[in-house]
C-alpha cells in the first residue's frame, strides 16, 4: 500500500463530500426566501439515502470485478467481500485500500443526483424526491459509472474517456433533470414568475466551497499523488477562471452588467466542463476549454425561454451543457503526452476516432439516463406524487419543514440612550416599574433603512414611550431593473423601515420631526389615538 496515495485519495473524498453542503448553500442562496430550507434539505438528504444504497448495492453494481460490460454482479453486496478494484484512469501500480476507493466513489454517487434539484426548485415533494433518489442511485448511476469507469465497461472498451464525470456525473444528472422537468412541469406562474434570490452572499459561499471541493473531484480521480494529479488540479482552476471571465464578458455585452451571479455561474460552468478533461489535457487546452465553456454556457441559459422549460437555477445550461461540451471537446484537446493512458485528440494528431467515441458515449449516456429517469419519475408521480400543488409552492419551508430559514429580525441592538419618556414611570411595591400613564398616540411612518441606531436614539430623546421597527417594501413610481443570469426583472418596490412609535401628546411634534428627518414623507405619517384596555 502506498501511504501518500492513500492519504491523497482520502483527502479528496473529504473534499468531494464538502461539496454537498456547498451545493446546498449555492442553490439555497438563489431560491426565494420561503423555499430555502426545502432546497437545502433536497441537497443534504442524498448523504443519508445514497450512502446506504451505495454500500448495499451501488458499489458492487458499478465496480464489482465480476459481471459484464453493462452491470456488475453482487459479489461485493454490502461490502462484505470487497476485492481490490480494477482501475482504468491511471497506469498500473495503484496501491490504495479498496475501501478508500469505495469511499471516494461514494461521494460522486451522492452529489450527482443532488445537482438536478436546482432545475426542479420549488416543485418537488420531499417524500417523492427521496424515493426517486433511492431508485436512481441503484438503477441509473452505477450502470453509467461502470460503462465509463470500469475496465470492463463497454464504453471504456470502445475507447471513450471521462476523467472525473463529465458524462457519469454532469451529463447523466442533466439528462435526469430534463426528464424530471417533463414530469413535474413548470412552477405556478412561470414564465411570468420573477422570484428574486434570497441571499446572494450565501450563494457565493456555496460557490466557493464547490470550487474548493472540485480540486478533490478532479485531481483525485487518478488515485495517485503524482504529476497527473497536479496537472488535473491546475487544469481545474484555470478552466474555472477562464470561464468566469468569458461569462462576465457575455453578460456585459448582452445586458450591460457583469454580475456576481454571473461570475460564480461562469466559474461553475468552467469547472463542470473541464471535469471530463482534467487529467487528459494540457494547461493551454484547459484554458481554451474554459473560455469556450463560459461563452457557450452563458448563451445556453436563454434556451429555457426558447424551448419553454422551467429550469429554475439553470442546471441544464451550466451542468448538462457543460458536461456534454467538455466530453465533446476532449475529442479535440486530449494529449497523450500529459497522460499516457489517454488517446490523442484531433488537435494533437489523433484523428477523429476519439471524438467519435466521445459522441457515441455522450448519446448513450444521455439517452439511458433520460429514459430511466423519466420512467422512475413518472411512476412516482402517478403513485405517491412528485410535484407539490401550486399554492404550496409559494411557501415550501412551512409546508414541508414547519420552519423558516430567517426567523430573527435584523434589528438586534438594545437601547443605549434613555429618552425623555424614560422618567415617566413609577415604582410599584415590589420594585417593578410601570408607566405613570398610557401614551396618547401611536405614530406610524415609513423611514429610510440606514442609521437604525441613530433613529432609535433620536426617537427616544424626542419622547417616544415605545418603539417598533419592521422591514417594509414600499411601492414607488421609480422602476429599477435587476438582472439574474440575463433575466431582467422590473422592480417598483423599495426597501424601507416602518416605525411605530407610542408617544404622549406633549412629545408628538418632536417625534414627528425626527421621523421626517430620517426620511419619512408627510404622506406616510399617520397618527392613531390610543384607547387603553
UniProtKB/TrEMBL annotation:
Stretches assigned to the Ammonium transporter AmtB-like domain: 7-406
Keyword Cell membrane among UniProt keywords: no
Topology within the bilayer: Multi-pass membrane protein
Compositionally biased tracts (Polar residues): 423-437
Record keywords: Ammonia transport, Membrane, Transmembrane, Transmembrane helix, Transport
Keyword Acyltransferase: no
GO cellular component, one term: plasma membrane
InterPro entries from the UniProt entry: Ammonium/urea_transptr, Ammonium_transpt, Ammonium_transpt_CS, NH4_transpt_AmtB-like_dom
Molecular-function annotations in GO: ammonium channel activity
Subcellular location: Cell membrane; Membrane
Region (Disordered): 412-437
Transmembrane intervals: 6-31, 43-62, 90-114, 126-144, 164-185, 197-216, 228-248, 260-281, 287-303, 315-334, 354-380
Similarity-based family: Belongs to the ammonia transporter channel (TC 1.A.11.2) family.
Protein name: Ammonium transporter
Species in which this protein is naturally found: Arthrobacter sunyaminii
Amino acid at each position: 500500500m502506498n501511504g501518500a496515495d492513500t492519504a491523497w485519495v482520502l483527502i479528496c473524498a473529504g473534499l468531494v463530500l464538502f461539496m454537498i453542503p456547498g451545493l446546498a448553500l449555492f442553490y439555497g442562496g438563489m431560491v426565494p426566501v420561503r423555499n430555502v430550507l426545502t432546497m437545502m434539505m433536497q441537497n443534504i438528504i442524498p448523504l443519508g439515502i445514497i450512502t446506504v444504497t451505495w454500500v448495499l448495492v451501488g458499489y458492487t453494481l458499478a465496480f464489482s470485478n465480476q459481471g459484464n460490460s453493462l452491470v456488475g454482479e453482487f459479489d461485493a453486496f454490502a461490502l462484505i467481500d470487497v476485492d481490490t478494484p480494477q482501475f482504468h484512469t491511471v497506469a498500473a501500480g495503484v496501491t490504495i485500500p479498496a475501501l478508500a476507493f469505495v469511499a471516494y466513489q461514494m461521494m460522486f454517487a451522492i452529489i450527482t443526483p443532488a445537482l438536478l434539484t436546482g432545475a426542479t426548485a420549488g416543485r418537488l415533494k420531499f417524500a417523492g424526491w427521496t424515493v426517486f433518489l433511492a431508485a436512481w442511485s441503484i438503477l441509473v448511476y452505477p450502470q453509467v459509472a461502470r460503462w465509463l469507469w470500469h475496465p470492463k465497461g463497454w464504453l471504456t472498451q470502445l475507447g471513450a474517456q471521462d476523467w472525473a464525470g463529465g458524462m457519469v456525473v454532469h451529463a447523466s444528472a442533466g439528462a435526469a433533470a430534463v426528464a424530471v422537468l417533463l414530469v413535474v412541469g413548470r412552477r405556478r406562474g412561470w414564465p411570468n414568475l420573477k422570484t428574486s434570490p434570497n441571499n446572494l452572499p450565501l450563494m457565493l459561499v456555496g460557490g466557493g466551497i464547490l470550487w474548493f471541493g472540485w480540486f478533490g473531484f478532479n485531481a483525485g480521480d487518478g488515485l495517485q499523488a503524482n504529476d497527473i494529479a497536479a496537472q488535473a488540479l491546475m487544469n481545474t482552476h484555470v478552466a474555472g477562471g477562464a470561464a468566469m471571465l468569458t461569462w462576465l464578458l457575455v453578460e456585459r455585452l448582452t445586458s450591460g452588467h457583469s454580475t456576481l451571479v454571473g461570475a460564480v455561474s461562469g466559474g461553475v460552468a468552467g469547472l463542470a466542463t473541464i471535469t471530463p478533461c482534467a487529467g487528459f489535457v494540457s494547461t493551454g487546452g484547459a484554458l481554451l476549454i474554459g473560455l469556450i465553456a463560459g461563452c457557450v454556457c452563458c448563451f445556453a441559459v436563454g434556451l429555457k425561454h426558447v424551448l419553454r422549460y422551467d429550469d429554475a437555477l439553470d442546471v441544464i445550461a451550466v451542468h448538462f451543457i457543460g458536461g456534454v461540451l467538455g466530453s465533446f471537446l476532449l475529442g479535440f484537446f486530449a494529449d497523450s503526452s500529459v497522460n499516457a493512458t489517454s488517446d490523442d485528440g484531433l488537435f494533437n494528431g489523433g484523428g477523429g476516432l476519439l471524438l467519435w467515441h466521445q459522441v457515441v458515449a455522450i448519446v448513450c449516456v444521455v439517452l439511458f439516463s433520460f429514459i430511466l429517469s423519466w420512467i422512475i419519475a413518472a411512476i412516482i408521480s402517478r403513485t405517491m406524487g412528485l410535484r407539490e400543488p401550486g399554492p404550496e409552492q409559494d411557501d415550501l419551508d412551512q409546508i414541508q419543514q414547519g420552519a423558516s430559514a430567517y426567523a430573527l429580525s435584523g434589528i438586534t441592538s438594545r437601547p443605549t440612550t434613555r429618552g425623555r419618556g424614560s422618567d415617566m414611570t413609577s415604582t410599584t411595591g415590589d420594585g417593578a416599574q410601570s408607566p405613570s400613564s398610557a401614551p396618547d398616540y401611536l405614530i406610524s411612518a415609513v423611514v429610510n433603512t440606514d442609521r437604525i441606531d441613530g433613529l432609535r436614539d433620536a426617537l427616544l430623546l424626542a419622547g417616544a414611550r415605545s418603539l417598533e421597527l419592521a422591514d417594509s417594501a414600499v411601492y414607488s413610481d421609480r422602476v429599477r431593473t435587476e438582472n439574474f443570469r440575463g433575466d431582467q426583472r422590473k422592480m417598483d418596490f423599495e426597501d424601507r423601515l416602518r416605525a411605530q412609535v407610542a408617544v404622549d401628546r406633549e412629545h408628538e411634534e418632536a417625534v414627528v420631526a425626527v421621523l421626517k428627518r430620517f426620511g419619512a414623507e408627510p404622506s406616510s405619517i399617520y397618527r392613531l389615538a390610543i384607547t387603553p384596555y
